[in-house]
């Protein structure tokens, strides 16, 4: 029996970059997620956390937006 593959983890910087791309005028979350081989619902969750952090007055430009769980994806294998 083989172990299930581990879910990849994304860095806070990568998540912030994706979120900021989606917040640009005219941006499509689905398109940006697809271009980066991400699930759009995950990107929406990142956006919600980003906005929650901003609402709480946390810095979102230099420091990580929030403490991300170690169990969340970091890298997605390329689709073949």
Note down, in words, how this protein is organized:
The chain has 80 residues and is mostly helical. It has a domain of 44 residues. The protein has three helices and no strands. The protein is globular. The relative contact order is 0.24. About 18% of the residues have low confidence.
In short:
This protein has 80 residues and is mainly alpha-helical. The protein has a domain at 12-55. The chain has 3 helices and no strands.
Radius of gyration, rounded? 14 Å
Assembly state (oligomeric) = single chain
> H/E element string?
HHH
- Tell me the structural class: mainly alpha
According to DSSP, the number of beta strands is 0
Q: Helical content, roughly?
A: 40-55%
Molecular shape: globular
- Ends apart, CA distance between termini: 25 Å
What is the average of the pLDDT values? Answer: 78
Classify the beta-strand content into a percent band: under 5%
How would you sum up the major sheet? none
Residue ranges: pLDDT <50 for 5 or more in a row? 62-75
The number of helices is: 3
Notable characteristics:
mainly alpha; 42% helix
Topology overview:
Layout: H1 12-22, H2 29-35, H3 40-55
Helix pairs in contact: 1-3
């Amino acid at each position: 029996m083989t172990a299930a593959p581990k879910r990849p983890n994304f860095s806070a910087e990568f998540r912030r970059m994706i979120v900021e791309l989606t917040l640009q005028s005219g941006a499509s979350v689905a398109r940006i997620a697809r271009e980066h081989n991400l699930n759009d619902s995950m990107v929406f969750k990142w956006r919600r956390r980003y906005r929650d952090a901003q609402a709480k007055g946390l810095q979102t430009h230099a420091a990580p937006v929030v403490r991300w769980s170690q169990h969340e994806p970091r890298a997605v294998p390329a689709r073949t």
